[in-house]
Model the fold of this input.
Amino acid sequence: MSNAVRPLIVGAGPAGIRAAQALVEAGLKPIVVDEAASGGGQIYRQRLAPDKRTPRDLYGSEASKATALHETFARIRDKIEYFPQTLVWNVRGTSADVAIDGRTRRLDFSHLILATGATDRIVPFHGWTIPGVFTLGGAQIALKSQGCAIGEQVVFLGSGPLLYLVAWQYVKAGARVAAVLDTAPFSAKLNLLRGLPSQPGVVLRGMRYVAELMARGIPVHFGVEPDRIEGEARVEGIVWRERGKERRLACDAVGYGFALRSETQLADLAGCRFVFDERDRAWRPERDMAGRTSVSGVYIAGDGAGIAGADAAELAGERASLALLEDAGYAVNRERVAVLERGLAGIQRFRDILEIAFPFPDKWAASVADDVLLCRCEEISVGQARAAMREQEVRELNRLKALTRVGMGRCQGRICACAAAEILADVHGQPLEAAGRLRAQPPIKPIPLGIAADGEAA
Amino acid sequence: MSRTLHKDVAIIGGGLVGSSAALALRRMGFSVVLLDKGYCGAQASGVNYGGVRRQGRPPEQIALSQRAHAIWPRLKEVIGIDGEFVRSGHLKIARTEAEMASLEAYAARVADLGLGLELVGHNQLRERFPWIAGNIVGASLCQGDGHANPRLVSAAFALAARRAGADVLEHTPVSHVEKVPEGFHLSTGPGIEIKAQFVINSAGAWADSFAEAFGEPVPLSRIYPSMIVTEPVSVFMSANIGAEGGGIYARQVDRGNCIVGGMRGEPNTDLDFSRPTGSGAVTIMNRAAALFPALRNSYAIRFWSGTEGEMADRNPVIGFSRTTPNLIHAFGFSGAGFQIAPGVGEVLAELVRDGASRTPIEAFAIDRFSRKDQGSPAGSTPEPQERDISK
Amino acid sequence: MALLKRLARHELPPISFTLNGTVCTGRVGDTVLTAILTQADQLRLSDFSGSPRAGFCQMGACQDCWVMTSDGERIRACSTALEPGMNLRTFAEQRS
Done:
């Protein structure tokens, strides 16, 4: 049986690694393809070369989880077929096109587990493309992987757990954080107390981050409405409104983001049906508790299946593999399945609380000025998009892309599509889900024209 | 939400042909409803390569093509935008002596039709188009041809028709159409009923079922031309490029992106949509990198393909039904509809108004396939738009 | 001039590379993005308005950190490791 079962796992973050481990433990040899040079995903990203910093320095309270995950991946390394620094740029039927070291080849699979993770959810402001403005995730990678702060006077802005975590990590590492600007009111944070009984560790840790930031005299502002980032060649300051008053702060870098958005292109190319997720304010692949998608043999786990965080990703990765094994005729441990599903359900409940504590800035779409750049690849402004929506009655993202180029550039809408959907909803007074989602098109990331084509892999 | 519309003309299919017909008919004063099962121009009309090219068409298409040729530079006036139309010239390259001979023969055949073709030898080609690499024997240049942006042009024709007073009903598939004594009766998915004096069947790759409903089966198949687009690079490509014998066609837009085609995609599970194959896309990319050294280091950022109707003889069907009065067909453009569509729209409007068109369209009669004794009325083997050597 | 500020990894061995014709030093384990932005404050000019860009997501998603090598190759700076002798250019080629 195992000869016919040749699972492909895309992504070697928490979900992908735990998925691979479960398959290895069942005696299978999965293929694992990952864009990074080493396993861990974004959250537990590893350095390109070791340095003096300890796991505790790098991953803080999550150090033991990170280390355990890295060790697991090292342990199963010779029991999997591992392709690091490899991009899956297309999926069709039971084969994937992968780009590896300037060559492209086809990998055939019997089952597919997509553990493609997430990136920061972004909305544009004036000045968001100025050098020195990074996503929160980008700011965190600069620090963890590269040992660099994004500037000398850093402002962190946005909404979401990552806002305080990254600010705190910067402070711990010796960077100067000029301010933390939270777009949600302080009152929203009180909802976190409802999460205390189920996730006391997470809640208390979050509170500690805020308390420590404040104790060090770092200004933390709530209810912030960002107006603009100033500067031309580089960041010089940030301007926002707070309780009706305009405030300005000098800084040379801004890290910002509003929680995360799932990477779903491959699920789309694999033919998975999508559903609208109110909590994520986004369309995501439809899946059952185990991670089965609407396409037989295709499973999805981790933040790519809807945002739930790293702990959930580890559980979901293993759960998806157990589903795969069960579907392929292997006996699986029902008790383990129950444990995983209980864990996932608990995290899902907590996610609802987090969403209330770290809400999306839902006034943004109505207030963002016409001259703000919406699509940073194609350099299309909010005003150009709004004009097409109004004058050509554009109500849907793919139509918006066709008529204005929003989402048509190198990033394929990863950065701007969420914001564009919010603007569509605002302009037409329609529910967010009516904007639909950009259809994925291969290659899901750019590939070189001269890429050499290998024969089909065995 | 059942309602009934009474119109002079109902047009099935909001592609470029249907939209331009709707616009032309409105300008003549007819009442029009334009129906599309999805968005207007979302299929082949909107996602084709964007070649605005007369060169290479069979002689019987040239009169129609010339009529359209006069419309393209006036787009701004006709539909409100220029559609990124550029008169860049269309350069058809020959990679072998035989291909060059074929280009020469074509040039002779259409010499009197006003295309102004210029045959370019190897040395001159090197001088005038130094950005083309490889062992090119020669080429044929049609200076007046060019390219435009299909995404914008198709949608703009539909919008212009709407602004001119046409009822444009998107997401409104026609579920049933029949001849009734007072004209036609159409039923649509959303429950709108339509009574019309005339019906134009411009349903592209979906037109055969409507033709068949009126007893006119046609040899229409589906093709899925696929394209790749590069990231923006310095503008170097001064002409729209085709190749005798097919395999590659390429153009560069002002913003710097190069659009390259030459292979076919495959239908999706939903047969109305298609996707390039991975290997086909890589083949196109490699061909482009080889032919255009300026692209050697650039990246492909997106692939796509469209669903297009192709006739067995690669000529469209344009003209009145032979079974049903006041039914007009216009479909099957076989990968070469973009340039002539605005001309076809005017012709269709004339057919409604006058019962005949001032542009000859006899070669495109729907009954040409049943008149086997006469052979092809075109009397020639038509030149495909961009021949696909992969099949 | 530098955009990024090194807080750690000072101890790693230096790597020489060339940036816009000037010899610079990075560290083992640097990405191309880090190596450049600890020396300079931009990676490229945007395609259409020519405004300066210096990356954004640092995780290979936004595609805003493409730089060029002296022989015209393109490199996504955030996901490419710095190698000794790399000859990098941060200015975009002028498009007309």
In short: Residues 14-85 of chain C form one domain. The first strand of chain C starts at residue 5 and ends at 6. Chain C has one domain: 14-85.
